[in-house]
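Hi R.,

As promised on Friday, here is the backbone we talked about, encoded as structure tokens. Could you run it through your design pipeline when you get a chance and send me back a sequence?
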């Protein structure tokens, strides 16, 4: 059977530093998989290898039946099916919200102006920022900017959405709006791979949780198992640092990142 995402024996080294040491997992169509783990464990590197922003040292990445690590693959075409949302929103500051959501549609998908605008407005509506179409990113809150970034990714009709700590740069009161948009996407059946410290979100929305430490997957399974009844000491130790026990299972939001994982530390 074929998976939406299939990662096999993935290794990534930077010089002599081996960051990913043999990662194997799959994501099925319509599933949400949350990746959790301490700072430096390789979570961002893993996501960047999934869309080949980083070239894996060894192993295969297959998305929608297309092996991206095949040297003969049309990588630009394959990447078009992947939406990526980063911790920092990476909007073009000199373009309006609407232009930000239209530009890649126009340049990459070669959509006409009217169609690109229609798709942009539809997606901005979906994430709740349609009223901001003519504003510039600097005029928006962080949560609104992140929702524009999500709309921009969705406008490309991705078959898979990758999120790398999409809420960790946000003020706490803005986190919920972004998580609500992500939850709605998941409910719509979007296949999602999400690096997050939001344990409430992982617990409620994820089909599976993958706990990484030191470049390997220590354990994975349903959220109730990995977050609720972790088997490994490393998982328990990580969770005790990020979880406020009083908030387990209570809505989205939850505790922020621990103090040794300051926003902006990732590339
Ligand atoms: N381009 C790079 N060149 C050299 N080393 C890198 C590069 N990118 C990442 N690393 C190293 O790889 C390791 C894993 O980094 P990565 O960003 O994947 O961790 P992470 O799990 O996402 O951490 P965080 O929770 O802080 O975002 C770190 O030791 C980091 O310094
Ligand atoms: Mg990271």
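Update: got your reply. Pasting your designed sequence below so it's all in one thread:
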């Amino acid at each position: 059977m074929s998976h939406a995402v299939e990662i096999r024996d993935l290794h990534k080294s930077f010089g002599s530093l081996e960051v990913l040491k043999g990662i194997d997992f799959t994501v099925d169509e319509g599933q949400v998989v949350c990746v959790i783990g301490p700072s430096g464990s390789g979570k961002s590197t893993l996501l960047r290898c999934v869309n080949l922003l980083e070239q894996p040292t060894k192993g295969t990445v297959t998305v929608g039946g297309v092996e991206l690590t095949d040297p003969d693959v049309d990588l630009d075409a394959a990447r078009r099916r992947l939406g990526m949302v980063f911790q920092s929103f990476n909007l073009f500051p000199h373009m309006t919200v609407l232009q930000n959501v239209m530009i890649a549609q126009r340049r990459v998908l070669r959509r006409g102006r009217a169609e690109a605008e229609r798709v942009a407005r539809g997606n901005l509506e979906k994430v709740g920022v349609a009223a901001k179409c003519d504003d510039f990113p600097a005029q928006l809150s962080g949560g609104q900017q992140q929702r524009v970034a999500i709309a921009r990714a969705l406008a490309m009709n991705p078959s898979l959405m990758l999120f790398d700590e999409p809420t960790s740069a946000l003020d706490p009161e803005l986190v919920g709006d972004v998580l609500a948009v992500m939850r709605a996407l998941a409910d719509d059946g979007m296949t999602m791979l999400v690096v997050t410290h939001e344990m409430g979100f992982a617990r409620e929305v994820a089909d599976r949780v993958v706990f990484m430490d030191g470049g390997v997957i220590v354990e994975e399974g349903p959220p109730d198992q990995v977050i609720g009844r972790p088997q490994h000491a490393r998982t328990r130790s990580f969770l005790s640092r990020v979880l406020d026990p009083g908030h387990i299972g209570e809505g989205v939001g939850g505790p922020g990142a621990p103090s040794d994982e300051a926003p902006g530390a990732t590339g």
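One thing I noticed while checking it: The longest strand covers residues 17-27.

Thanks again,
M.
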